[in-house]
Amino acid sequence: MKILFVCTGNTCRSPMAEALARHLLAEYGVEPRSRGIFTWEGIPASPEAVEVLRRRGIDLSAHRAAQLRPEDVAWADVVLAMTAAHREALLAAFPEAREKIWTFAEWVSEVSGRDLGGDIEDPAGKGIEAYEATAARLEELLHALADAFSSGKLGVAAVSGNGPDGDAQNASEADAPARGAEALSGGTAEEGRPDGDAHA
């Protein structure tokens, strides 16, 4: 299964999710990637993200941020946003892929049959403790996903892709180019700045 994790800057949440998924879900044939919807291409993961994964025996130092492109969405079996706001931006930009666009927590809740909460908040600028909490939250979701794989629960949502929030998922494809351009380029320079506080 090809899983694409998406956040804002691709320097904190989504690369942490990608690396942790590669570490925790390898036995289930999962191929993870991560991208940002508004990022500076080529900047490294935040030092805090690198550190909290180093504590878990995972090396994130080689990661470089990458901007989300249509071919990434086409590649993925499921596209997992860190927040509902990210999901809505993705739905606006890629209405043709609406059946496979979810938030991470929504999708894992669906396939595991457990209520696993909502958004994964941005830890940028909040100190190492916030990054530890983010890593623990990602691990919680990934362990639930591993349980779904091992128990055979995973399948229906992943294959049918009946994504949440039907009104948003029925976005008009005719308006997609304009809305998508606005959604994926509508961040500020501050949000994606490569100074360690870039949102991810």
From TrEMBL:
Residues 190-200 have a biased composition (Basic and acidic residues). Pfam families: LMWPc. InterPro entries: LMW_PTPase, Ptyr_pPase, Ptyr_pPase_sf, Tyr_phospatase_low_mol_wt. The active site is at 7 (nucleophile), 13 (nucleophile), 122 (proton donor). Coiled coil: none annotated. Keywords: Hydrolase, Protein phosphatase. Residues 1-148 form the Phosphotyrosine protein phosphatase I domain. The keyword Amino-acid biosynthesis does not apply. Residues 160-200 are annotated as: Disordered. GO terms for molecular function: protein tyrosine phosphatase activity. Belongs to the low molecular weight phosphotyrosine protein phosphatase family. This is Protein-tyrosine phosphatase. It comes from Brockia lithotrophica.
